[in-house]
Amino acid sequence: MKTLFFFTFLLVTPALHAQTGNLSEIPGKITGLPANGTFKGISGKIFEAARASKTLARPAGFEAGIYTGAGIFEILLFNYTVDKTGSIKKVDEAPANIRIYLNPKDFFTRNAGFFDDYDEKLKIPHPFQRIPAGDSTADYVEYSFKNYPFNAGTDRDFAFRVLRGNNKPVFIPFTRKEYVQYLIAKEQLNIKNNEKSIAELKKDILQSQKNLKEPVYKDIQKTIEDGIRSMGNNISKIQAEIVPCTERISKYKDLVSKMSPGEAQAVAYVDVESHKYVNSDLQYLVPYGRKEGWPLYIVNPDYYDPTQPPSKPQAMIVTYWYWNGSPQEFCPDFLKERTKEIFESIDYHKLKESLE
Asked: Which of 111, 139, 286, 301 has the fewest beta carbons under 10 Å from its own?
């Protein structure tokens, strides 16, 4: 999480002592605004669009804390509770929030939790399966990964609304050639990690062999010798794991070299649910010409223009989150409802205009 800047300004101040009635009906307040009550620049436009939500503009049963930082505008939502003295106060931690990411080029791999080592270390994009568009409009496209069968990310139960400053699609098809190259990258990473483990074990063996010669370790000589044998056995096991990885890489590369132009550019379909291809060398990939399962997509690498300065808004992603685990009372149902209400009633047209 990047460092956030916080300023306090009360719009509505409820008397939190000696109040009666439902906690969800207590007048709330907004904190986090500058002393003059408004933000400047893009943060000001984002705040005005967010405050178009009546639920946020007149908070009831919760406090909204506004936080801004590099590339993020966050609204933390704190509900009220009654403490041991009978006083009403907000909870210590926000069980819900609305986040607006500015120029979020790494959103799906970093912020939302969709991430594999292959993305960063080997520069192979993470393929996504089953990306349904939800309540989309001319101002945004909504995506949900609730039924995503692979790494579902940290916010799998919630929706993302993507606003673009251009007409380029967020996702583009992942081809059969790219998918096989992805499998090659996975095997190469496995080999790299295994070789690293072997190198570390060999280093430990050398150190243990030196220790055998030191008088101070005389009483535990057998333990050291047993450790050396165990590490040697582990090296043999790891080396054995590298062999099939190397064989699969060779097979995959041969497959890529023999692909026709049509197959290389065809969309990759994978069948995860039936497990029909789970034991195949190509891990879920449906044979060319068939369309079982689901097509794969990747984030469009041309979605952002890297020649533009970081300060120029090119896109936004709006998402929401609330505590959905145990204990349930940590985020009461009314706050869950209002969190979603705020997410849905933001003025997305105003947000879209701020990108133009």
From this structure: 301
Cα angle vertex 85, ends 79, 89, to 5°?
Answer: 20
* pLDDT-based confidence at residue 4 (cuts at 50, 70, 90): very low
pTM (predicted TM-score): 0.76
For residues 89 and 81, is the Cβ–Cβ distance under 8 A?
yes
Q: Is 154 helix (H, G, I), strand (E, B) or coil?
A: coil
Question: pLDDT tens across 27-72, in order?
Answer: 999 999 988 888 988 999 999 999 999 999 999 999 999 999 888 9
Strands 29-31 and 62-69: parallel
Contact predicate 296/127, CB 8 Å = yes
Cα–Cα distance between 322 and 316 in angstroms, integer? 20
* Whether 321 contacts 97, CB under 8 Å: yes
Q: At residue 165, what is the residue type?
A: G
Q: Are 89 and 19 in contact (CB under 8 A)?
A: no
The sign of the CA dihedral 216, 220, 221, 223 is negative
CA distance 296 to 270: 7
For residue 99, pLDDT over 50 is answered with yes
Burial of 117 by CB count in 10 Å (0-12 exposed, 13-18 middle, 19+ buried)?
middle
Which helix or strand (DSSP H or E) is residue 129 part of?
A: strand 128-129
d(CA 101, CA 95): 19
Q: What is the C-alpha to C-alpha distance for residues 315 and 183, in angstroms, rounded to an integer?
A: 31
Predicted confidence band of residue 223 (pLDDT cuts 50, 70, 90): very high
Annotate 79-128 with three-state secondary structure.
EEEECCCCCEEECCCCCEEEEEEECCCCHHHHHCCCCCHHHHHCCCCCCE
Residue 55 structure tokens: 């639920």
Give dist(CA 138, CA 127) in Å, integer. 26
Q: With contact defined as beta carbons under 8 Å apart, do 149 and 316 qualify?
A: no
- How would residue 147 be classed by pLDDT, with cut points 50, 70 and 90? low
pLDDT value at position 20? 44
